Amino acid sequence: MLRREQNDIVTQTGPGTQMGALFRCYWLPAMLAEELPHDGCPPVRIKLLSERLLAVRDSEGRYGLIDEFCAHRGVSLWFGRNEEGGIRCPYHGWKYDVSGACTEIPSEAAESGMCDRIKLKSYPLIERGGVLWTYMGPSETQPAYPEWEFATVPAAQSFTSKRLQESNWLQALEGGIDSSHVSWLHRGNLNSDPLFKGAKGNQYNLNDAKPVFEVVENAGGLLIGARRNAEEGRYYWRITPWVMPCFTMVPPRGDHPIHGHFWVPIDDENCWAWSFDYHPVRALRTEEVQAMRDGHGIHVTYVPGTYRPRANKDNDYLMDRQAQAAGVTYSGVAGIAMQDASLQESMGPVVDRTKENLVSTDNGIIMARQRLLRAAKALAEKGIVPPGVDPAHHLVRSAALVLPPNEAFKDSAAEALKAKPGVAQVSV
Amino acid sequence: MQSESARVNTAAEYRFRVAAPNSQPRTASLVALDAASLPVVARAVAEAPTRRRQVALTASGDVTLPAWLQTLPGKTRALIDDAERSDMVVMVAHAGYAGHGATLLGEACRLRGVTVTALVLTEPETEDAALSATLQRLRPFATMIVVANGEDYVADMLQALRA
After folding, report:
1. Shortest CA distance to B109 belongs to which of B121, B117, B99?
2. Cβ contacts of A211 on chain B, cutoff 8 Å
3. Which of A115, A134, A296, B142 shows its CA 20 to 30 Å from the CA of B68?
4. What integer pLDDT is reported at residue A134 of this predicted model?
């Protein structure tokens, strides 16, 4: 459980909040590059950290993320015209470049200086790995660019999607580090999902339904190890890294691509669940990419023209009681992503953690909350840069491996947990 | 027509969640496995009177099993009984601990169905071998092992577990 004031701190990410200040220390995935497909394309409305913004790719190919509303009368610039070098408000013709600077006010004489005094708030927007990243903090503390491996391997080796999740970001994140739910909620998927099946590690999972957990602090966040029995007294470990504030990776299975998530707040009651798959040393196969597009693995299919999952609360997540009764799915909801999202959304937009009853195996969640609260406080009171900002902290991988019984996984698997260009993942 | 999930998954509907308590208080038995953990446990107990403090079974230096066993008479019964009356046992040790007390108490907890959580406290200079030795000692019976850099996690974890 958390006290109410603690719950408020970790769940509120708008301007002026402690956790909002923490999030504004990082480069965050803002949108897919495909959403701004060509120079001069239509702008896209986007809300992040409770701020309504407009993403623009101008006629010169420059990206920008600016205040959505015209400084003149407050019209949404989403209705604007993407003209030469900027976006023009259709109401009275005010024009802005991708930095938010007003470049033209047709009704005012150029020499009036009015134009020079107008500037919309803006944030940088950069492309890396098919993702547009933004940094919403003070410009003087802008960190180095993100170095996450999924975004730095060749494009053919990586696939990224995003989906709307209608819950607070922390509920979604906590699902990503809650390894103990996998044996229940997703048990129907291990041997059937094309992006999981066939790995030897699946048998360890299925043969030992009572994993034991170890949580270890890491430079950027945590490592959460789930331990199961393997042959000859050895242990099969599945190791999940969490890097602050909202990056998690799922331990791999066999030669399948590695996958993971970002959980980025839209506002306090919605978040973007980013899902990526990549392979460090080979291109993704055609059938793998097709499976991802078809909503397998950690991806979903969409309501056409949106990033809202096709199974959503408006259709009761396409609940199938027959599939549930037959054990095809454990919860009656199809697909790993929506199995998680449906339950996390059912907790309410912001779950009341004063009512929960955590148990020992929830220590990954407990420690993640503690680290978030501690980092937010240190930032607010002492200006200490939080873990996960340093790009060195991005160079992590999940791993699945068999180790001798007497070794600390953090040490024995240290090399396996590092992202290394051209080196395959360690996976069973 | 609006779906049931769309109707209930709102902040407005969430306000109608039953307000009655959904659990009873839990008691934790805190065990310092080594001398360095004694003050850590003492501070955690001082924060909440429902926490039981147990500091027995510690031994300094490399004590052989026979020698250690000779120190036990009069200690173990109360320790195990106390653990049995608790909802959970939390063992606290510093990396490098490899004593026998954890095994004795851990086996007793396993037989009685008491959940054991182990907290291993490390320092920046902690060596891999020291941590491995402690983990090896704790793994046979601990449901969860947490390796933490600071003692403040002990109190935070207990609060999170309502203990």
Report:
1. B117
2. none
3. B142
4. 98
